[in-house]
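We modelled the chain as a single entity of 394 amino acids. Its sequence is:
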Amino acid sequence: MNLKAYGAVALLLVCSIFAGGCSSGGGGDGTPTTTPATGVPLTGTTWDLVLYADGSGGMSSPIAGTAIRAAFGEDGQVSGSAGCNNYFASYEAGESSLSIGPIASTERFCADPAGVMEQEAAYLALLGSAAGYTADDGRLEVTDASGRTILTFTGVVPAPLRGTAWTLSAYNDEKGGMLSLLAGTEITAVFESGGQMSGSAGCNDYFASYEADAGSLRIGPVGTTRMACADPAGVMDQETAYLGLLPEVSAYAITGDVLALSDGAGRTLLEYRVIPAVPLSGTSWTLTAYRSAAGELVAPIDGTNVTAVFGDDGEIGGSAGCNLYSGPYRAEGSMIEIGPLAVTAMFCAEPAGVQEQEDTVLAHLGAAGGYRIEGAALVLTDTPGTTLLEFAAA
């Protein structure tokens, strides 16, 4: 879906949820006419819905499997997910007063879970009727004109830039809009404490230096591996567009678990979300790339399955592609030691090259000196920090 940047003009469905009709909420020049009061608790905060007025005089929790969020930006715009669609509106807030609207949203239809569209309509209608609020100890209660609590949220703690695994949700199409990623692709970013940025660009891995300070961010130059991916169609064009935007970045802002990178003109270039991390131990990991004898990261041979499971008892085991292996491991902080490993003694002739791949993988496991988890990805490195093996959580 091509989502135009949140602002006064919505090029998708712009529909007022409450009386007053459809409107951009802006002046004649397209700029918002409402801005939040400075210093109020809402400005620059993000909230997750936990209760909403259900129409019978009580409060109900959101349907399991749905996430409803409100982010109150410093630009006078509130935006988030209503459970199925994304929404956005202008807002004004005082010490205890709050007004929102008109509300615009995208126009997807979600069938699962049952009742999600009715819940979304109820939430947006309640948000549009907001007249006041109280924010205290990580809890936000929104009230209507009669003073009745209609929405209750809990605060979302902003994720740190460094050390967080980010996945790209949208990128600038250089025509004033934001594009979602191609189905079946993922673009990631990790800003390490040593001033290095790395991740997957959708096909190739990339790496770059960066400098970040008080909201400013500079990235580059950018280097990549040199694989070519044919599926899905357009993945290489998407990768090229993403990598081309990175050097244009000059600022960043984090709202809850959303990271926005912008250029010097304030134009949003890239939007990411936090990748929830999975634990090292107890997770079944499947190899996605390994460093070849030529020094390049390559995908495993088709038809082979290389796995690793780190047990809570300090034992690692799995398949090396042909043989099974097992042995001790020790992980402390970001450091890891693996082995010595015991390996079964089968010989596999097919697919071609499987034994050579197995020898390389086992050697890399024994040489591992560090690791990091980027959401659902595990990266094993040698002591200097060179990537040896990359796994994905099964």
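As a brief sanity check on the tokenised model: The chain has three helices and 29 strands. Confidence is low (pLDDT under 50) at residues 1-39.
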